[in-house]
Amino acid sequence: xxxxxILISEFITSQALETLRSKHSVIYxxxxxxxxxxxxxxxxxxDGLIVRNLTQVNxxxxxxxxxxxxxxxxxxxxxxxxxxxxxxxxIKVIPATGANAESVAEYVVGAAVALTRGFIPATMATLxxxxxxxxxxxxxxxxxxxxxxxxxxxxxxVVAKKAHAFGLHCVAYDPMLSEDSIALDGFSVPLLxxxxxxxxxxxxxxxxxxxxxxxxxxxxxxxxxxKEGACLINTARGxxxxxxxxxxxxxxxxxxxxxxxxxxxxxxxxxxHFAGIENLILTPHIAGVTHESNQRVSQMxxxxxxxxxxx
Length: 311
Hints:
Blueprint lengths: L4 E4 L5 H8 L3 E4 L7 H7 L5 E4 L7 H5 L6 E4 L9 H6 L3 E4 L5 H17 L1 H9 L5 H4 L9 E5 L3 H12 L3 E5 L7 E3 L4 E3 L3 H7 L2 E4 L13 H4 L7 E4 L8 H10 L4 E4 L19 E3 L8 H19 L2
Helix pairs in contact: 1-12, 5-8
C-alpha cells in the first residue's frame, strides 16, 4: 500500500490525528507555522496539508510542494489560502463548513443577551462599589426584539434557530440569495435588503466572508443606517467592520453596544480606540473555538482528507 504524506502545521485533536495516521504518513508539527523557512522545507514531499488560520498557504509555499493534492482547513475562513493559486495546480481546498456553527451561534446569542441587558457596564459599576439598580432596570427584555442576520449561510441559519428559540423575530440579508424568505424548522426568516434590515433590527450579527465586496462594508455610512441604540456582533472577519467608525458610534451612544470577536489585524495589539467604552465585549477570535467544535472540525477534516487521498 502506498501511503500519502500529510503535513499538519497547526493544532489538531488527538482523535483526528489517529484517524489520519491510520491510513497515511503524518508529520505533525503544531507550531510549524511560526517558522517559515522550516515550513517551506517541510513542504517538499507532501501530498496533503492541514492548517488553521495562521499558516499562509500562498504561491511561495505551493511552489515548494510539487506533490501537493489537498489542503484541509481546520475552520471555515479561507483568507490565508490563495485559492486561485491552488486551483491552477488542481489542489483541492477543503474547509470545515458547518462544524463550528453551534459554538458561533451560542456566542452570538449569548453576547446579544448580555449587550441588550447591559451586563458588562452593570458588572463594572458593581465592582466599583456602586449599586445602579434604577439605571439598569430601564433596559429591555430580549424577548420579541428583531434580530438581523447579515449573511445567511450555515452559521447564520443556526444563529436564527437559537435566536428564534429565545422568542426573537429574525430577519436576514444575503446577497447570494434571491428568495423572499427561507424556511427553517417550524418558522421562516424574511430576506430583506441590507438598509431595511439595519433600520429594523435591535441587534445585528455578521456572518459574511471577507471579500473585496465586504471589506469595510460596515463603515460610517452603513453603521448610521442601524436602528438607534442597536447592538452589533461580529464573529465573521475583522476587515468587514471599520473599527474606528464603530468606536465613535459606541462612544456617542448612537450604537448601543457591540461584541467583536474578530479584528482587522490579528492578533490585535492596539485596541485603544475602544478604550473607555462600557457596553462592549472584545474576545480573541474564540466564538467558534470550543472543545466540542475543535473535535468536530478536526474530525471532519481528517475524514475528508482521508477520503480525498484514498489509500
